[in-house]
Amino acid sequence: MDTAYAYGPETRPHRVPPALRAPLEARTWREFLYLMLNLPIAIVMFVYAVTMTSLGAGLLVTFLGVPVLAAALTGARAFGSVERTRARALLRLDVAAPEPVRPSGRGMMAWVGALLKSGASWRHLLYCLLHFPWAVFAFCVSLVLWANGWALLLYPVWHWTLHRYADQPGIQLYGSEDPRDDFYLDTPFEIAAASATGLLLVLATPWVIRALTQVDRVMVSGLLGPSRLATRVTELESDRGTVVDTAAADLRRIERDLHDGAQARLVALAMDLGLAKEKLQEDPDAAARMVDEAHGEVKLALQELRDLARGIHPAILTDRGLGPALTTLATRCTVPVTVTVDLPTRPAPAIEGITYFTVSELLQNISKHAHATHASVDVWRAEGRIMLQVTDDGHGGAGASISAAGTESPGTESSGTGLAGLAERLDSVDGLLAVESPAGGGTTVTAELPWRG
C-alpha cells in the first residue's frame, strides 16, 4: 500500500461539537437504517442457511446431498453480495468480492467440487448463521434507544394526548391496585426531567449505534471479503506486473541510451578512422588531426558507457555499500547534500539497489525542481526495516498526493517528479513512500523498505 500526505485548503471547523450534532448527521441515520434492515434480512438468510444445510446434510447418504449443499453455498454467496452492497451504501464500507469459484475441469460436478472446496463459500454460509443472533440484539438495542430517546425528548410536545385520548394524566411509571399509589409524569418538573432524560438518550444513541455497526463492519470484512491469502496473492501478482514493467522500461532506456549515445558515437568514430586511413598517404597532417578528433570521441564514448553502467548498477555500491555510494551520488547534485548512513550491516543487494536509485531519483528532482539551497539524506535501520529520508529547503509543492495505485494528483511539481514511479517500485517489495511537501515549506520524502539482509 503507498502513503502520501496531501495539503489543500483548510476546512473550517464545525461550530457545533460532534456530540451535539451526531443525532442529526446523515451517517447516524444511515447506520440506524442499516441496523433496522439487519433483522428482516438476517431472518431470511438464517432460515435459508439452516434449511438448506440441514437438508443437504440429511441427504448426504444419497447422491442428492452434495448438490443441495452446493446450492446452499451458492445462495450464501448471493446473500454475501447483497450484504457487501448494503454495507457499501449505508456504512461506507467497501469490501472487495472474494475470489471466484474456479473449477478444475468442465461439467457440473467439477463446479460443485470447486464450490465445496472454496473457503470463501463456507465463510458466507457461516455469516448467514452468525449474523442472525447479532442482528436481533442490535435491532432491539438500537430501536429501543432511538424510540425512547426521541419520545422522551419530545414529551412536552405530545404529553397532552395521553390525557385526551388515553384518559391518563401522563406516562405511568408505577401502577398498583390502589389508584392512589399510581405515579405519572404529569407535573411541569417531571415533564422537564423526562425531556432531559430523553435528550441524554438521543445524544448517546448515535455512539451506541456506531459501536454496534462496528461489529457489522468486522463481520462483513472478515467473512464476506477475500481471504488474506487471496489478497496477498493479488498483491504479489500486481507487484510482479510492476517489476516486469519497470524492468522492461529500464531495458528500453538502456537500448535508447546505447543507440543514441555510445553506439552513434562509435559509428561516427569508425567513419572518421576510415577517412583518416584514406588520407594517411596523401595528407598526413589532416589524417593526424582526424585521428586526434577520433581520440576525443573515444574518450566521450567511454564516459557515456561508464555513466550508462553506473545507471544500471554502480560498482561502488557493490564493492563498498550504501554509505560511500550515496556520498558519491550526492556530489553530483547541484545543491550541497549532507549524507548520514547508520546501518549495522548491509541489507539484501536488491533492497540496497532500490534504496540507491530512490535517492538518485529524489536528488535529481531536487536539482531540477526544488530551487533548494541545501538537502540531506538519512538512512537508518528500525525494527527490521530500512528507513530513508530525503529533505530539502526548496519551495515545496512536489506531487500533491500519491494514490495507492501510484498515480499523482495535479500539483505544483507533479509533472516530471517521478514520485509515482518510485511509489510503484517500492510497493513491489512491500515498501512505503510518504511525501510531505507544503507549498513554500520544503519537501520531506520518507521511504520504508524491508531489510531482508
> Sheet bearing the most strands, described?
5 strands, mixed
Distance between the termini: 22 Å
Radius of gyration: 35 Å
Percent strand: 5-15%
Q: Which of globular, elongated, flat, extended, rod-shaped describes the shape? A: elongated
**Topology pattern, helix = H, strand = E:** HHHHHHHEEHHHHHEHEEHEE
Helical residue percent band: 55-70%
> Residue ranges: pLDDT <50 for 5 or more in a row?
1-11, 400-417
Secondary structure tally: strands:
7
Number of helices: 14
Structural class: alpha+beta
**How many structural domains are formed by the residues?**
3
Structural account:
The chain is of the alpha+beta class. It has three domains: 18-169 and 195-226, no CATH class; 230-312, Single alpha-helices involved in coiled-coils or other helix-helix interfaces (Up-down Bundle), CATH 1.20.5; 319-450, Histidine kinase-like ATPase, C-terminal domain (Heat Shock Protein 90), CATH 3.30.565.10. The protein is 63% helix and 9% strand. The protein has 14 helices and seven strands. The strands form two sheets. The protein has a five-stranded mixed beta sheet. A two-stranded antiparallel sheet has the order 1-2. Helix 3 (65-91) packs across helix 4 (108-117), helix 5 packs antiparallel against helix 8 (188-224) and helix 13 (349-370) runs antiparallel to helix 14 (419-427). The longest helix has 55 residues, at 228-282. It is elongated. 26% of the residues are buried.
